């Protein structure tokens, strides 16, 4: 079987057997395409691939200027692919076994300081869409949503009485996330005062709408957040809001398992990164304030 056919079989397996999302499978396809091209250049067959070959390939990506997250994603795709080949009986040894992203590739998530979050949430804008934008920001920080989860939130996903929202995350996996009282109040106010005006007699299941009565896009929310950050004097991105949610919860005493569920991480090792972030912040505060720290 040709190398491309082996990859195609894997992608079909991901779609039909594992029921992964189209976006996830497309990501696998793009990563494996680059890997196949490299194998062809090196005159190496997939079924003969060794651990040294994988390391050589990943180091090549680093030399080309790939980011840490891109290299980690490529390694994850290769791990899934070779596990499939083991499962199929095509190979009897996984060349990615034991391989982890080198620490120098690991990029710790950046979280905002608590006073920076307060500045953002108290910012006032002369915009007729301000209520929508501040509500989205409040909800994102209060519940740790990814920006894609925020813009895809539907009315039926919110349970005001029980105080939670149902979120569809990566790989279409659903989770239930608590929603803060302040967020509930803001959402209710937005639903009554602004959303009907945005609909303009249209109908939509999505909670947050643009000025045409359609679902907000990730790009639009990012632009709106950037504007709020500029006014508040805070450098911010959507990812930083989610990272702040996780870091502040952990610093407040939340346990890792609970945080893992709220963030929708399939592997707790991903959540454990925030432990390192919290310890770094703690050390920074110690060095800054203790008279005998230096």
TrEMBL record:
The keyword Cell cycle appears for this protein: yes
Domain Core-binding (CB): 1-86
Family from the record: Belongs to the 'phage' integrase family. XerC subfamily. Belongs to the 'phage' integrase family. XerD subfamily.
Main location as per UniProt: cytoplasm
Domain Tyr recombinase: 107-287
Location in or out of the cell: Cytoplasm
Active-site residues, as the UniProt record annotates them: 146, 170, 239, 242, 265, 274
HAMAP family recorded: Recomb_XerC_XerD
Keywords: Cell cycle, Cell division, Chromosome partition, Cytoplasm, DNA integration, DNA recombination, DNA-binding
Name by which UniProt lists this protein: Tyrosine recombinase XerC
Keyword Transit peptide: no
Subunit structure: Forms a cyclic heterotetrameric complex composed of two molecules of XerC and two molecules of XerD.
One GO cellular component, as annotated: cytoplasm
An MF annotation (GO) of this entry: DNA binding
Pfam families registered for this protein in UniProt: Phage_int_SAM_1, Phage_integrase
Main function: Site-specific tyrosine recombinase, which acts by catalyzing the cutting and rejoining of the recombining DNA molecules. The XerC-XerD complex is essential to convert dimers of the bacterial chromosome into monomers to permit their segregation at cell division. It also contributes to the segregational stability of plasmids.
GO biological process: cell division; chromosome segregation; DNA transposition
């Amino acid at each position: 079987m040709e190398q491309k056919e082996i990859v195609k079989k894997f992608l079909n397996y991901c779609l039909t057997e594992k029921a992964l999302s189209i976006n996830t499978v497309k990501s696998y396809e793009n990563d494996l395409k680059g890997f196949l091209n490299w194998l062809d250049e090196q005159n190496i067959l997939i079924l003969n691939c060794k651990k040294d070959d994988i390391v050589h390939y990943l180091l090549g990506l680093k030399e080309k200027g790939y980011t840490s997250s891109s290299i980690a994603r490529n390694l994850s795709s290769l791990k899934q692919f070779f596990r499939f080949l083991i499962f199929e009986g095509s190979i009897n040894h996984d060349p990615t076994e034991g391989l982890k992203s080198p620490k120098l590739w690991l990029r710790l998530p950046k979280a905002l300081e608590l006073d920076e979050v307060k500045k953002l949430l108290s910012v006032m804008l002369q915009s007729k869409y301000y209520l929508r934008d501040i509500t989205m920001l409040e909800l994102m920080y209060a519940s740790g949503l990814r920006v894609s989860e925020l813009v895809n939130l539907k009315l039926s996903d919110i349970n005001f009485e029980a105080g939670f929202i149902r979120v569809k995350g990566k790989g279409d996996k659903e989770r239930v996330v608590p929603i803060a009282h302040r967020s509930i109040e803001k959402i209710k106010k937005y639903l009554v005062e602004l959303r009907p005006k945005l609909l303009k007699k249209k109908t939509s299941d999505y909670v947050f709408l643009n000025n045409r009565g359609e679902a907000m896009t990730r790009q639009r929310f990012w632009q709106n957040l950037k504007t709020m950050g500029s006014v508040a004097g805070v450098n911010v991105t959507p990812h930083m809001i989610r990272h702040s949610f996780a870091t502040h919860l952990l610093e407040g005493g939340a346990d890792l398992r609970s945080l893992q569920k709220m963030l929708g991480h399939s592997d707790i090792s991903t959540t454990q990164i925030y432990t390192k972030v919290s310890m770094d912040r703690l050390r920074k505060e110690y060095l800054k304030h203790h008279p005998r720290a230096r």
